[in-house]
What does this fold into?
Amino acid sequence: MIQQVENPIIEVHDLSVSYEKKPVLWDVDLSLPSGKLIGIIGPNGAGKSTLLKSIMGLLPLSSGYINILDKPLKEVRDKISYVPQRESVDWDFPTSVFDVVMMGRYGQLGLLKRPKKADKEIVMDSLSKVGMEAFKDRQISQLSGGQQQRVFLARALAQQAEIYFMDEPFAGVDAATEKAIVELLRQMSAEKKTVIVVHHDLQSVARYFDWIILLNMRLVASGPIENAFTPELLQETYGGKLTLLTEISELIQKNRFPNRE
Amino acid sequence: MLENLRNFFSFQDINVLYVSLGTIILGASAAVVGSFTFLRKRALIGDAIAHAILPGICLAFLLSGTKNYLLLIVGAFISGWVSILLVDYISKNSKIKEDTAIGLILSVFFGFGVLLLTYIQQSGNSAQTGLDSFLFGKAASMVQQDVIIFSIISILLVVMVGLFYKELQLISFDENFARSIGLPVKGLIFMLSSLTVLAVVTGIQAVGVVLMAALLITPTAAAKYWSGYLPRILLIAAFIGGFSGFSGTAISYVAPNMPTGPWVVMVLSLIAFISIFFSPKKGIIAKAIIQVRHRQRIQDENIIKTFFQIAEAEESFGEPKTIKMIREKRYYSDKLILKILRRLKRHGYLSQTKEGYFLSSFGQKKAARLVKLHRLWELYLTDYLRIAPDHVHEDADTIEHLITPELEKRLEEKLGYPEVDPHNSKIPYD
It folds into this structure.
């Protein structure tokens, strides 16, 4: 069940990606509609984060290309926003909540430019949207996990993008933060933003998203939740490992063999 | 010796003033540049660069035959960069991990550098005088021209960091995000490495290449104990770096036979040591004091609670309790109990008469609250975590000291103000 769409906001064409020489994504062909809340679902090691990072241009591609808003990534960087996994940074870094959210403005600001008053207002506005304005001068090392995640989301909001990519925003957050994030996602969706979320918890998938991508080293399904979130497709995604594919991948890594000429 | 000291601090010799200013500037600048290497967790790379520029300097000298600083800097720059690239190449394309690669490259380059240096010294070239101080530094051997060149480079380095402050901060905190917004991350890292090479170069004569790594890393490591905010850390690090540089110069004039670098490192390390131990919030001693306070609080509260427990068992609320009675309930030594009782008396929880000790009304309230928290938590553990009633006492004994008034309220509401705990003991409310 892979549904392609007319005038896609994101088009992934024949994407293969290796991580440390080991292929983790094989020939992903995907097109996504605009203005939807999209969940990327799959087991551990399925390549969910890898797909996100590839779209953001953070990993070298073995094959394929990606178009966003019908253009290559470089031309639309100011229209997209990326929320990395919370654990990917060192929260002991000596900086304040305000300064981290201000990083969301750097893309628009450009090199060598100082933040202006308008940027500061945008930062404060983003902080209030995630309920963190009272924490603006707090050192980030003093935040709880949920608060850290909110700061990351505020930074993304400060980018004022059209498409948002979030890597596991629900991982390890408290119930209040989870509710706040869901609220935020709905709001963004109402404003016609497209939000793509790597998600782990199958139970909440149907409540949160209106389009899902099922992934396990290859694309299993992509479509509206009512068509793609079926027991058969989930079984195909989570059940029965593709042992042969895994073994080939490991063989490629071991022998440092190219998976494309 | 004393005379030297007086001479130095009178700054009558204009050269002394120049060299002092110069070392302050280069110390501060190296600290600022080094901050970002430190924050990117690449402290060892600074050390590798510091060692690896030696062969570059020597080769530049051999080829030109003069001590032309511009050429020496070019040589240092090239060999510094070759070492960084080699470390990168080895860690990416072999099974050798980065720290091992750094160790390998550092020693090969430095070994080669010392070979060349020895060769130069024995070649009898008259221009080579002073080159031997490149290893461990000799601030006093600097002349005005050296000072001016190195100071200008140092100031330029700080200006560059200032200009690219927001980008350097971002790539140090979240490199992937920096790349996602299209920052030229590779270019910025190249720039930072180049600044590091140049920072080491500025210190070759005053501090020596070998120990410049300390001036890159240690000020930030120490500054992190005094602040948690990057702009302030940079300022403090700059101050520490400048001060250490200056003190090295002072030593160099007062004791002319001493190499400067080791003294700079000694001063630096002393500051770092003081920071690690005595910083008021993050220092080891401050943390130890907090530990002791916690332990005392637990002991105090346990004894207060014991008063309540004895009274509850014997229905003797308001009657005096003796140390012997307390010890039967709480297995502390007599000495410890006496100490705690004294502390509690001082804080107004207790009063003492001939018959024994009484809880004040303040103390009684506290005792009832502690018992309540203990029993509520036991109930929470059995009801919500499904832990057997005979296993919850130890947990509750710790947690009762930690629960804040807000948590207390939530706990009461969640459990619905229960009457008794899992062992059927009554829960006391105000």
